[in-house]
């Protein structure tokens, strides 16, 4: 037994090892095949990783020795949190900040660091634009706080200077279709631009006149000429934001507030020029000066009315100019706000117009309400899930390369998992991605029906679909989720093999990608090798799907004895070796047991043949009434001449008469070869007979052979 168990154990180990080797060879063959089909596939071999230094074994618990070096301590992962243990540690961002190297060239369109720098420049520009008029008109700048105002002013000047020296000279630009990144070329391009001239003008050192006329904020007015940085920041920020219309509304509102701010400053200056409280039109000097003047500016700019009438010529001229400017500025703001809101709601307006047109069409043709409700539901779900009714309208405007990049990011991970397309040319798959179209199905909508011609392949992007079958066609066979693919065999099936074999309905809302058979055929014209591979895979998959049906056989042929699986060859060799050795181990016992099973199977075969013969007898018995009738006719007409014998089959019964020896009457009939005898025995009771069938031993031996 020990020898047998060791042998079986070693054979199991060898078998497992052989299976592993076969699996490795198959994987290697597939990789080589993919490499030959698509040479651009990168190698799967990972780059060697540096092995970490092994920490010294931990010492026994106790106080560390004074001579222990820091290099002997194991290096663990650094941990940072807000607790006291981590308060005095250096945070990782400080280390990254120290090791940061400023780039030699900056892409102004995609570099987020440049957008952040523009934000600081715009903040400095807004400081000058908003506070220079306030410091000039209102008495908020005093000798007591002049140092605070000057500190912030020069900090803004420093930001302007850094923008000129560090950032603007490193901006990339396009010349002749090439992106220029050379330092000298970038610096020369900036020095020759209009922006450099405006940046120099806005930094004119007019502050030296402070020593002669005092600290007058109007001398800093050139700082407001750096408006080009403000508009550039708007463009870059709108390109980053997902909902740029919100920023546009805020910016337009800021324009309106700034115009009111400047108007309030001018009103206070006019009141101070005429004298505070000198007339009923000017500011009387009570309360918060800025709030009172801003309130007056709002009423004037919006032309609400209720303002006091100007008295002097200066007041009349000022009020007229204020009215004209207010009407013009307010109308411009209203028009710009309308454009911003209209652009923000353009998609919603288009969706509403399409839905209204569809409803009007359905009402005109008196479409049932159930269908109308499903159409409305489709419109609402498609709009809320995608933000548009047809996403292909946006992609049409893009060049083919950009459309391909978007399609790869959205659909490549799903399509690459389809077994039918694995091993095909990668460029063919890229071309196929551009032909996919998105379709939304409502709950319980039929995606495809059984028996219809299949012309599309479906890829589930979101939602679930159910495959129905069974006798009633309503049994859920399987539920497919996002990322699943079905209908791919119909794309390449030919000769009537492209009919749907089951019903597929949407379980809830489902968003599917569809690939038409026509589009795939147009693509495969340019990729003959992939076309051959796809045809071969489609035939193999179709054969596997139909294989169980072919093995069942016709429904009318009953399978009495099921087929028995063959004994594995390796097991047969082991049994043969055991028989030659004459051992009495487990294998010998198994061999003896198999002989018994074989004998039992042969007995079952003989029983099955006997059952077939009984079926034949049943057909013979059905002809007995006619035989009995013939015997009675022959018995009554014994004196009549006997007609010649008609040709009969070998198994046709030949009736014979036997004189009655007992009270009961016995009639029997034999076949021409005397192998089958059928007897009819009458009893004492009327309308009661006994039927008996006998088979000779020769016939049984013949059937066994």
Automatic annotation (TrEMBL):
Residues 420-524 form the Cyclic nucleotide-binding domain. The chain crosses the membrane at residues 112-134, 146-167. GO terms for biological process: retina homeostasis; visual perception. The keyword Transport applies. One of its GO terms (cellular component) is photoreceptor outer segment. It is a multi-pass membrane protein. CDD domains: CAP_ED (cd00038). GO terms for molecular function: cGMP binding; intracellularly cAMP-activated cation channel activity; intracellularly cGMP-activated cation channel activity; protein-containing complex binding. Its main location: membrane. Keywords: cGMP, cGMP-binding, Ion channel, Ion transport, Ligand-gated ion channel, Membrane, Nucleotide-binding, Sensory transduction, Transmembrane, Transmembrane helix, Transport, Vision. The keyword Transmembrane applies. It catalyses: Na(+)(in) = Na(+)(out); K(+)(in) = K(+)(out). Residues 36-75 are annotated as: Disordered. It is found in: Membrane. PANTHER family: CYCLIC NUCLEOTIDE-GATED CATION CHANNEL BETA-1 (PTHR45638:SF16), CYCLIC NUCLEOTIDE-GATED CATION CHANNEL SUBUNIT A (PTHR45638). This is Cyclic nucleotide-gated cation channel beta-1. It comes from Merops nubicus (Northern carmine bee-eater).
């Amino acid at each position: 037994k020990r020898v047998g168990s060791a042998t079986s154990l070693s054979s199991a180990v060898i078998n497992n090892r052989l299976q592993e080797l076969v699996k490795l060879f198959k994987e290697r063959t597939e990789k080589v095949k993919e490499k030959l089909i698509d040479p651009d596939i990168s190698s799967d071999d990972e780059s060697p990783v540096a092995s970490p230094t092994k920490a010294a074994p931990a010492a026994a618990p106790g106080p560390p020795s004074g001579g222990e070096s820091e290099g002997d301590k194991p290096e663990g992962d650094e941990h940072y949190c807000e607790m006291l243990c981590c308060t005095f540690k250096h945070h990782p961002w400080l280390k990254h900040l120290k090791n940061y190297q400023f780039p030699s060239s900056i892409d102004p369109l995609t570099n987020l660091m440049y957008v952040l720098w523009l934000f600081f420049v715009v903040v400095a520009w807004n400081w000058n634009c908003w506070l220079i008029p306030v410091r000039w008109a209102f008495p908020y700048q005093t000798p007591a706080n002049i140092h605070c105002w000057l500190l912030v002013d020069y900090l803004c000047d420093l930001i302007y200077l850094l923008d000129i020296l560090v950032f603007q000279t490193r901006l990339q630009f396009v010349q002749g279709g090439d992106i220029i990144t050379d330092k000298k070329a970038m610096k020369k391009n900036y020095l020759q631009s209009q922006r450099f001239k405006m940046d120099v003008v806005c930094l004119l050192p007019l502050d030296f006149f402070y020593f002669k006329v005092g600290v007058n904020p109007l001398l800093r007015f050139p700082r407001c000429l750096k408006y080009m940085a403000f508009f550039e920041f708007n463009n870059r920020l709108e390109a980053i934001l997902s909902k740029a219309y919100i920023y546009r509304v805020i910016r337009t509102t800021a324009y309106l507030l700034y115009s009111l701010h400047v108007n309030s400053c001018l009103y206070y200056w006019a009141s101070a020029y005429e004298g505070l409280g000198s007339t009923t039109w000017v500011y009387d000097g009570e309360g918060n000066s800025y709030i009172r003047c801003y309130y007056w500016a709002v009423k004037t700019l919006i032309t609400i009315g209720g303002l006091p009438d100007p008295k002097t010529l200066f007041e009349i001229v000022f009020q007229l100019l204020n009215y004209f400017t207010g009407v013009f500025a307010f109308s411009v703001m209203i028009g710009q706000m309308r454009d911003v809101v209209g652009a923000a709601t353009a998609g919603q307006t288009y969706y509403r117009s399409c839905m209204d047109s569809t409803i009007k069409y359905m009402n005109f043709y008196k479409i049932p309400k159930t269908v109308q409700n499903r159409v409305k539901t489709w419109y609402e779900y498609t709009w809320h899930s995608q933000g548009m009714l047809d996403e292909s309208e946006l992609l049409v405007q893009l060049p083919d390369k950009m459309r391909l990049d978007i399609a790869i990011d959205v659909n490549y991970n799903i399509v690459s998992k389809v077994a039918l397309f694995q091993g095909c040319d990668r460029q063919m798959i890229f071309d196929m991605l551009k032909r996919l179209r998105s379709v939304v199905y409502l709950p319980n909508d039929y995606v495809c029906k059984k028996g219809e011609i299949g012309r599309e392949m479906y890829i589930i992007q979101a939602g679930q679909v159910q495959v129905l079958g069974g006798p009633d066609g309503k049994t859920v066979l399987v539920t497919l989720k996002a990322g699943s693919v079905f209908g791919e065999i119909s794309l390449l099936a030919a000769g009537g093999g492209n009919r749907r074999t089951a019903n597929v309905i949407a379980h809830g809302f489902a968003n599917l990608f569809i690939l038409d058979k026509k589009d795939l055929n147009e693509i495969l014209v340019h990729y003959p090798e992939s076309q051959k591979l796809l045809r071969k895979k489609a035939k193999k998959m179709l054969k596997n799907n139909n294989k169980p049906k072919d093995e069942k056989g016709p429904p009318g042929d009953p399978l009495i004895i099921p087929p028995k699986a063959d004994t594995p060859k390796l097991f047969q060799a082991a049994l043969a070796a055991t028989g030659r050795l004459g051992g009495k181990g487990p294998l010998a016992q198994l061999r003896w047991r198999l002989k018994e099973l074989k004998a039992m199977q042969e007995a079952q075969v003989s029983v099955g043949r006997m059952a077939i013969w009984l079926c034949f007898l049943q057909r013979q018995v059905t002809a007995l009434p006619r035989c009995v009738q013939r015997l009675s006719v022959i018995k009554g007409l014994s004196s009549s001449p006997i007609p010649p014998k008609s040709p009969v089959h070998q198994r046709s019964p030949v009736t014979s008469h036997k004189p009655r020896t007992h009270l009961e009457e016995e009639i029997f009939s034999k076949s021409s070869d005397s192998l089958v005898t059928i007897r009819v025995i009458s009893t004492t009771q009327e309308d009661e007979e006994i039927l008996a069938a006998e088979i000779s031993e020769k016939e049984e031996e013949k059937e066994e052979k």
